[in-house]
Amino acid sequence: MELYNKADHDRRYDYLTGLYSRLSLSDFMEDVKKGAQPPVHAVLMVDIDNFKSFNDKFGHSMGDQCLRVAGKALLTFGLANDISFYRYGGDEFIGMIRDETTDCEMKALTNSLMEEMQAIRIPAGDPANTELSVTVSIGWARGDADCTELINQADSAMYLAKKNGKNQVACAEEMAEVHKNT
Q: Using one digit for the tens of pLDDT, what is the confidence trace for 51-73?
């Protein structure tokens, strides 16, 4: 039973970051769809800017250290703000927010997350520190949006943020408003 429990833990948590795994995200989304979990009202997508360059310049062990530190920061932030964070892929993370939040609350939350992440320093040489910057995008739930749709909205907002210079917040809802008016 101990081996089974360890194997189950290892598949549900990302060993590098300590966050929930993508498998856990899939299970969570299925539970939300079935009504076994409360609905998700917003999704945060966090992506480490220029991670490939960081990895190429400083090596994979420093890239792993970067992911560990980012994971710890997201876990701490998530616990403080009731957000479940999952490692979505390489250097991308998904945060699921179940509490209904106003636009003002979401902006304050994402600004706070940006500040937390920007304060991270990854030691990448002696004695240099390399600043870790992130791009955060937000998909807000409106009406009957499901988790997959919210993740897709956050992903689209992420690409907009990166196109506009990285290290910033972009909101899917604001993007839709811009496209509606053009």
A: 898 889 888 998 999 999 999 99
